[in-house]
Write a structure and sequence with these properties.
The structure holds 2 protein chains of 2 kinds.
Chain A lengths: L4 H13 L4 H21 L5 H8 L2 H11 L2 H27 L31 H11 L7 H25 L10 H24 L13 H25 L5 H10 L13
Chain B lengths: L2 H6 L3 H9 L4 E2 H11 L8 H13 L3 E8 L3 E8 L1 H36 L1
Antiparallel strand pairs in B: 1-3, 2-3
Helix pairs in contact in B: 3-4
Classes of the chains: A mainly alpha, B alpha+beta.
């Protein structure tokens, strides 16, 4: 389905204002989009201002989040932001010394072709796990200008993830904050499938003028990437439904994040 | 300054639970009913309801259910759970105590203001 420009602008503005973590932000935007798009079908000439009036301005939505958030959640978010500042400072230091990044293959799962090198720089492996975790979470949402940069970014993200996994294995696995169950995993996959279908729908009917300013792909590339991701997710979902149990759900969880979602997320229809 | 928005904070949850006591509703219906039942005095746009709804679902006060509407659209209906009903009762009792206290505090002020203005 073609996402009208006012809806895109509105959803982007809301996303920028939301004072919560990325996972919660993503859930919120998906739910809001499910309400906005049918409204746009009935009111195709609606402007972004009308959407604000109907669904709430980005600021009022942010205020409502703050008014319902626990102080511990807000403190956690503040702490995460401070860790991000530290992580960005560390990353800047790494990037200043050279033009790429060394990931020491502590983990045999990292294929050699994914290692990016620069000699003499501070390796990511020397950063504390807290900084790496923040980098892992935040780097995924850093916009890039070219397909090459986008791919480089995802190789880095995957490498950081693998490094964190190997440290976790070496030190003893931490208790997950939320138990990974088959139902939780299935929900995540279904959400990603829904997301891909929305992107695929947009790609099928979009005009070149619909592409965002930060689009890194042509329409055809975007459609192809969304289809590849959808195929991978669909196959994995079938495997999970058939073979996953409560005992082996965590293993499927790791595979989901390291193998199924390793394809670059198409960046062309940001919302 | 919009004082009404300040007063609204902390009561949206109670409004949502009270409306869901009657029937299962989706986001837009909740937003519309809040406006209608308050005589348009209180406006909570649908988008501003979601954080409250998420919090209530996490706490087990309400549950949500996706219903397919048409080929592509889904709608999420919310249902009041027993935990939510108990919380509503507690919140409403606290709210009554609070507003009674506030009213008696301000009643003296209202008389004084009338005297000053006149």
């Amino acid at each position: 389905m073609k996402i009208p420009s006012p809806a895109k602008k509105y959803l982007r503005a809301v996303r920028r204002q939301l004072p919560c973590g990325h996972r919660e932000k993503r859930r919120y935007i998906v739910d809001l989009k499910l309400a906005v798009l049918p409204y746009m079908l009935l009111h195709p000439d609606a402007t972004a201002e009308e959407l604000c009036s109907r669904f709430g301005s980005p600021q009022s939505i942010a205020d409502s989040y703050l008014s319902t958030a626990d102080t511990s959640d807000l403190a956690k978010l503040h702490f995460q932001k401070r860790r991000l500042e530290l992580a960005c400072a560390s990353l800047f230091l790494v990037l200043v010394v050279g033009s790429s990044i060394v990931i020491r293959a502590n983990d045999r799962r990292i294929p050699k072709e994914n290692a990016m090198t620069i000699s003499g720089s501070i390796p990511l492996s020397s950063l504390p796990s807290a900084s790496l975790e923040t980098l892992f979470n935040e780097l995924q949402y850093v916009p890039t200008n070219t397909q090459t940069a986008e791919e480089q970014k995802w190789r880095t993200v995957n490498g950081i993830g693998a490094l964190l996994d190997s440290r976790s294995e070496a030190s003893g696995a931490e208790e997950p904050k939320t138990p990974v169950t088959k139902a939780l995993l299935t929900d995540f996959i279904n959400e990603a499938v829904w997301d891909c279908r929305l992107r695929l729908g947009a790609a099928e009917t979009a005009d070149p003028s619909d592409l965002d300013e930060d689009a890194v792909m042509t329409l055809e590339e975007g459609k192809s990437a969304a289809q590849s991701q959808l195929d991978a997710l669909t196959a994995f979902l079938a495997e999970v439904e058939q073979n996953a149990t409560e005992e082996n759900a965590p293993a499927f969880w790791v595979r989901y994040w390291t193998e199924v979602l390793e394809l670059p997320i198409p960046q062309g229809y940001a919302y | 300054m919009n004082y009404r928005d300040q007063f609204k904070k902390g009561t949206v949850e109670m409004m949502v639970l009270a409306l869901l006591m009657e029937e299962d509703l989706y986001g837009y219906q909740l937003s519309q009913l809040i406006s209608e039942r308050s005589g348009k005095a209180i406006a909570v746009p649908e988008g501003s309801l979601y954080p409250t709804l998420y919090r209530l679902v996490e706490q087990g006060c309400i549950s949500d259910k996706k219903v397919q509407i048409g080929r592509r659209m889904t709608r999420v209906y919310y249902h009041l759970e027993l935990t939510g009903l108990l919380r509503l009762r507690e919140m409403y009792a606290e709210y009554q105590t609070f507003t009674d206290g506030l009213h008696s505090l301000l009643s003296g002020f209202a008389r004084s203001m009338e005297e000053i203005i006149s």
